[in-house]
Amino acid sequence: MSGLNVHPGIDVYELDTPALLLDLDAFERNINKMAAFFKDSPVKLRPHSKTNKCPIIARKQIEAGAVGICCQKLGEAEVMVQGGIRDILICTEIVTPLKISRLVNLAKHADLKVVVDDIENVRNLSEAAGAKGIVLDVLIDINMGRNNRSGIDPGSSVIKFAQELVKHKGVRLRGLQGYEGYMMFVNPLEERKRECLEIMGRLMETKTFLERAGFNIEIVTGGGTGTYMITGRYPGVNEIQAGSYIVMDSKYATIEGVDFECALSILGTVISRPSKDRAVLDVGFKSASTDSGPPSFKSAPSLEYKSGGDELGRIVIKDPSLPLKAGDKLELWPSHCDTTINLHDNYYAIRKGKLEAVWPIAGRGKSA
Amino acid sequence: MSGLNVHPGIDVYELDTPALLLDLDAFERNINKMAAFFKDSPVKLRPHSKTNKCPIIARKQIEAGAVGICCQKLGEAEVMVQGGIRDILICTEIVTPLKISRLVNLAKHADLKVVVDDIENVRNLSEAAGAKGIVLDVLIDINMGRNNRSGIDPGSSVIKFAQELVKHKGVRLRGLQGYEGYMMFVNPLEERKRECLEIMGRLMETKTFLERAGFNIEIVTGGGTGTYMITGRYPGVNEIQAGSYIVMDSKYATIEGVDFECALSILGTVISRPSKDRAVLDVGFKSASTDSGPPSFKSAPSLEYKSGGDELGRIVIKDPSLPLKAGDKLELWPSHCDTTINLHDNYYAIRKGKLEAVWPIAGRGKSA
User: Could you report the predicted ipTM of this complex, rounded to two decimals?
Assistant: First the structure.
């Protein structure tokens, strides 16, 4: 346990603030609900740990049936391997000599897979792996539309890439990554389904091209919290990368078909009530991310949160008789779980209003 | 030095990325320029350390003439005291029993001052200080217009507050804080000056009321990087809280009259060039804050940065012949220094393209 007076069993309102709270009952229901979705399916969950940045949480997901985890950055994967996780897919390209050296060192201690979309990168990975006496598992990263991130365009041209790839003996082709990230927040569900099925069709066509050309495509991975119910039932996909479901946030809560519970909140303290129509909270940009909009009040929905700078928030009070005063504690829903979690050093894991544990966010800031 | 292969003298492009770079020449010119402004003035600089979160930087500011520092949160002040800083103004109200206990413990090891705007809070501070056998220095926090944060409205009503305050023997009234935060980004300078002079007039009127009522108002503190040249020359003000000047950012760089150099950048690596018109960078929301807009490219101004998620950015390439490829490194200007610094664990201090030192951002995440 970290910090003064932070002991299991204390009331949540005894915590110093800002504090990132994790409601364990809701969190466990989320784990179990997603695990149940995949239980009798050929598809496995490989939850994205960029959301939670916490080996304790990754272990709980694996205990509930996940096949391993995804990491967005090598630094996260290093933390997860140190935290006892062995089966990791790194979902972004690892391209510099220094990072490739870190990658092959880590691969000696874990079952690592990494995505590729460039033959020069494949050559560099292969040489580094060969020099260490290992073979590195790779997945071809496929551009899933809207040209918004990395990846090779789907279609028959991927065959040529795969043919070049397998000439490099330090790497082994394991499958395809087709992450349809930009679809996560498409509402309504029917529209998301239509777009998702269309692009998944192109991914499966690519898989078929490769198989006909003699390649063994073991793994096809994609999907997120917004699309797991579509992609996770699409024939041929066998791993799903959903991460946010574990804690959710106020943006995901507006997405049709994403029926998980918001388990994460930020506990703040009113530090000033200078007038009837406003108060000041100790939660600013450095405790609640705003890339998906401001946080909102959990415990008092009539209150409105407005940015008040790096370390403070302004509370707009519509009911002037509200007895809100300096020292009062309020809970906020984050608008974006990933970026809010990355601001904090610990989760304060709460059950029925009492502190049960403090979980370090060991991957916080490990963006390199 | 932290990390693999991170040694003084290496080339900046050998650093693993994302990395937060501090250009030491520009940084030192900023320190010296601001110090020169205050050199023969009755006004002292008390730079805000919420920007830099780094005791090494705070010590350099004090060596250059600053009277002490400001902190926005108690957790920051604790880090700064551990880092050898003694004279600290905490610019936000400290109201909970736990924080008050931390405050009076810290005050035994440092010359702390804290702002107040509520008599019940004054009573609590006084009792806690008395129980520790100390007297805590306090400044009355004055609402500087637009009702956007904490503070008592300026004017004669502050007299009554001060009369109540001095009944509490565990605290000592040292002065007034009038921080005109919302004015920092008012352009043009003439408009900012007009607004600033108006509200400073009300602050000085309040000071006069208090002095006529027999109170000794030693310290009048306010001002920031956007207003130091106005507030810092306003008769009666004697401390200025500017912080961002030390490193600047692309938003402050657009503000008329703020003539400091952008000394901070984010080094990133291209991880994919999937097509002629786009590339993917390893810098996302978790390495460059976006509360003041996206970062922009320092080394290649024709490139446009677009958000690509938590850990990635998309690069829009207008010139398709640009030879940008996976592994290439690019530097970005942050849009907001405070919130970007708070994402990183270290500054990589660079001089003429070579690493000179790694400075831990010891106050990162110390928002409680």
Answer: 0.96
